[in-house]
Amino acid sequence: MSRDARWKALLELLVERGRLDVEEAAVELAVSSATIRRDFDQLAEQQMLVRTRGGAVVHGVSYELPLRYKTARHASEKQRIARAVADLVAPGEAVGLTGGTTTTEVARALAVRADLAAGSPALTVVTNALNIANELAVRPQFKIVLTGGVARPQSYELVGPLADGVLSQITVDVAVLGVVAFDVTHGASAHDEAEAAINRLLCERAERVVVAADSSKLGQRAFARICATEAVDTLVTDAAAGPETVRRFEDAGLTVVSV
User: Fold this and answer.
1) I need a surface site. Which of 77, 115, 172, 227 has the fewest CB within 10 A?
2) Per-residue pLDDT, 66
3) pTM score, whole prediction
4) pLDDT tens for residues 155-206?
5) HEC-encoded secondary structure of 149-174
């Protein structure tokens, strides 16, 4: 197992359990305890975990796993959700995409749609996510609008007043939100308040708002609110979402698509 793969596995185990012992992690990953100790020390230096006697714990209550380590989590569900979200976008529309693993999959699903293979433009994509802009910029039929701002290394998103300035001057047909949590009472939320502010502004500039979230994020809360539930038109999630959860969102006025 490569170091990057090992680190990703360690961080995912840590997020799920909150605490991880060296011996426990060594057994899980089938490597030596010395290797795990070295991994924990190096991850602690990057402030991605907190080292403890004999193990490690997550880095505080607002722990945020960097995007490059989240791509494998709920991957198949995110790809199904992404295809369903992409189907909600019509040729020629302007679509806003926030950062995140699910919205990155939405960008990829849009890129391979046959009816978006040509046009002038076939689609206008507005995003504050550097990785999404990078993936779509090679598609000459897509008009890519990238906001300014300061890049957050955890999510590759641009935030701050420079991003505000661009978004305040445009409108989009549909905004697709990647969220950390989505609860009927508390709305959509993110870990970081600067990201939440940009996402909220994108919602305000959109004719309709779609939340793309796998079922593990439903009924959850995070630190920074993006928008109220009533500001969202459609929730696209996976089939593991419980019927009671789906009913609560539908009762709140949302169209729920389960895939």
Assistant:
1) 115
2) 54
3) 0.76
4) 789 999 999 999 999 999 999 999 999 999 999 999 899 999 999 999 999 9
5) CEEECCCCEEECHHHHHHHCCCCEEE
Q: What's the start-to-end Cα distance of the chain, in Å?
A: 33
- Residue of 66 and 247 predicted with greater confidence: 247
Model confidence at 124: pLDDT above 80: yes
Three-class secondary structure assignment of 84-153? HHHCCCCCCCEEEECCCHHHHHHHHHHHCCHHHCCCCCCEEEEECEHHHHHHHCCCCCEEEEECCCEEEC
> DSSP class of residue 59?
S
Q: In sequence order, which residues have a C-beta less than 8 Å from that of residue 32 and are 6 or more positions away?
A: 26
